[in-house]
Amino acid sequence: MFKLKNILTLFLTLNLSYAFSSECIENDVLFGDSIKAKFNFKSGIKENGIYTHFGKISDFKCENNKLKKGWYVVTECLSEINEIQQETVRYFNFGFPDADYIIQSSTNFYFLTVYFSDKKEDAINKVMETKAAGVPHVWIQFLEE
Asked: Strand 50-56 relative to strand 139-144: parallel, antiparallel, unpaired?
């Protein structure tokens, strides 16, 4: 009986740890489609462990309508304006003074940006800093004219 109890405890512990793993969370095993946007940051081009997406400035907009050609460091993609505004404030308070968001017009997805640069190298350095600060999913969105 003692061995069966230990085996069951081990089995439940392993299954529970899998259920809360990042792989399950990323694949919406725990959270439904209503919680997360269906954007997959890993669908971009991967170079040196960093994913980069490419887009046109004309397909994006922001509150002040002053998007520039360049490299945006992105940490979140959400489909609700209230959620992205809350996350922007949270990132600002967490130590990202440039936290803002841009909207992809064709999908109505909101991208939380924490940094902008006209130089790729600077954006890559900021991705590394952001990951080191504990943000697990960080990628680059390059906007061109």
From this structure: parallel
**Whether 112 contacts 39, CB under 8 Å:** no
Residue with tokens 């960080």: 138
Q: If you search the block for the tokens 């640069």, which residue do you land on?
A: 117
Give the whole-angstrom CA distance, residue 97 versus residue 115: 9
Q: Report the share of the chain in percent with pLDDT over 90.
A: 58
Residue 3's pLDDT band (boundaries 50, 70, 90)? low
Q: Are 61 and 52 in contact (CB under 8 A)?
A: no
Taking the model in full, what pTM does it have?
A: 0.72
R_g of the chain, CA atoms, integer Å: 18
pLDDT digits (tens, 9 = 90+) for 22-64: 443 444 433 334 444 466 777 889 998 999 999 998 989 987 7
